Amino acid sequence: MATQKAAWLATSYYLPTQKLTNTQLAIEFGDWGAAKILEKTGIAVRSIAHPDECASDLGVAAAEKLFATQVCSPSEIDFLMFCTQTPDFFMPTTACLIQQRLGLRTDCGALDFNLGCSGFVYGLALAKSLIESGTAGKVLLITAETYSKFINPRDRSVRTIFSDAGAATLFDVLDSEDELIGPFVFGTDGSGGQDLIVRAGAFRCPVNSESDVEKMDRSGNWRSDKDLYMNGPEVFNFTLRAVPEALNNLLAKSGKCIADIDYFIFHQANKFMLDGLREKLGIPGDKFCIDLESYGNTVSSTIPIALANARRSEILKTGDLVAILGFGVGYSWAGALIRIT
Amino acid sequence: MNASFRTKMSAILRVSEDALTDEFPLNSDYWDSLGLMGTIAAIDEVYGVIIPTGELEQCSTIADLMDAVHRHSGKR
């Protein structure tokens, strides 16, 4: 019997106009050529927010593009979730500012949540829960980051990878016999918190004269405590441990095997990591999304951007079953299945 | 050292397979964070163990690396 199920309807995204190419990076970091950067990261160009452009601006631009497709109007949104780690202010909640800017109703729920690369999947789980519990009808999930503002220009380890973007995704209720979103798996391991971190700037480590001091690490990268630090090899280690287990648990929970899944969209961290995971899991190349060359690692927006692109280019067709998996800062990870409607 | 692991390490360190003796020093420009990630992936693929980065960073020769691999393989 058909019952009301939460469904993914559409995603639009926005990229800042300022770009950072491999040629520019090769000039700054002399020992790596543009071709080597592309080969290692899979990224050709990154989008960089302007100094006065914040996460809310990217999110609002993405949502305006979504509304321009006529998929729904701002007044129909019952609940807004905004996922970011680079909010406009400590307070107020950025989602409240976005409610006003998008012209959403004042009886619309709005909240921020702080997650990185797993954020879209967590947002998906929350959207499904809100919709299927009857708490909300149309849910708007916006993911947006401006990590570039945390990045030291002399830190190649993160500058070659991260990119800024916003994505706006609409979920709604549909009558369906089958689940259209889920099941889910989640994972958390705070012991990895120090491996991907901005140490200074909040209350555990307020900004002081020490936090501006830049130091060079053993790989020749410079950063201060106010800058983003990533222990790349350790994060890679974590993904090799956590991601295959999470996918296997997701498949077991859903009673599916790899052959039953039409397409796999993992967080687009970098090509090296994605190739390693694909090989380890034995996923055929034509079913495994690599879509970061023109976007970079946009943190919580990589999955919705890839989802939107795959749908638009008809890699994904109605009825297809997609496995998505986000993983990173926290450590935090989550996976889910989505049926394309 | 397993032949397939030797092939992978020679590609990571950009040296011939014959050069990878026990005493081969892990201090070249290729033993950077990407080199470490490549080694982590190679050890996982060939030996089925994941070695913490801190332990890999302590390795100064190929012999140290193989010791770490055997230590972790024995733990399983």
Topology, element by element:
The complex is a heterodimer of chains A (341) and B (76).
Chain A: E1 3-14, E2 18-21, H1 22-28, H2 34-41, E3 45-48, H3 55-68, E4 77-83, H4 94-102, E5 109-113, H5 119-132, E6 138-145, H6 156-159, E7 165-176, E8 181-188, E9 196-198, E10 215-216, E11 222-223, E12 228-230, H7 232-254, E13 263-266, H8 271-281, H9 302-312, E14 321-328, E15 332-339
Chain B: H1 3-13, H2 33-47, H3 53-58, H4 62-75
Helix pairs in contact in B: 1-2
Summarize the structure in words.
The complex is a heterodimer of chains A (341) and B (76). With 341 residues, chain A is an alpha+beta fold. Chain A has helices at 22-28, 34-41, 55-68, 94-102, 119-132, 156-159, 232-254, 271-281, 302-312; strands at 3-14, 18-21, 45-48, 77-83, 109-113, 138-145, 165-176, 181-188, 196-198, 215-216, 222-223, 228-230, 263-266, 321-328, 332-339. Chain A has a 5-stranded mixed sheet with strand order 1-7-6-4-5, with helices on both faces. In chain A, helix 1 (22-28) crosses helix 2 and helix 3 (55-68) runs parallel beside helix 4. The two termini of chain A are 18 Å apart. The model of chain A has no long low-confidence stretch (mean pLDDT 96). Chain B is mainly alpha-helical and 76 residues long. Helices cover 61% and strands 0% of the residues of chain B. In chain B, helix 1 (3-13) runs antiparallel to helix 2. The two termini of chain B are 19 Å apart. The mean pLDDT of chain B is 88. The chains are: A alpha+beta (341), B mainly alpha (76).
Side by side, the strands of the main sheet of chain A go: 1-7-6-4-5
Helix content of chain A: 25-40%
Overall outline of chain B: globular
> Which pair of chains has the greatest number of interface residues, and how are they split between the two chains?
A-B, 17 and 16 residues
What is the count of β-strands of chain A? 15
* Alpha-carbon distance between the two ends of chain A: 18 Å
Order of helices and strands of chain A: EEHHEHEHEHEHEEEEEEHEHHEE
Overall pLDDT confidence of chain B: 88
State the assembly state of the protein chains. heterodimer
Note poorly predicted spans of chain B: none
- As a percent range, the share of helical residues of chain B equals 55-70%
Q: What is the first-to-last residue Cα distance of chain B?
A: 19 Å
Rg over alpha carbons of chain B: 11 Å
Number of strands of chain B: 0
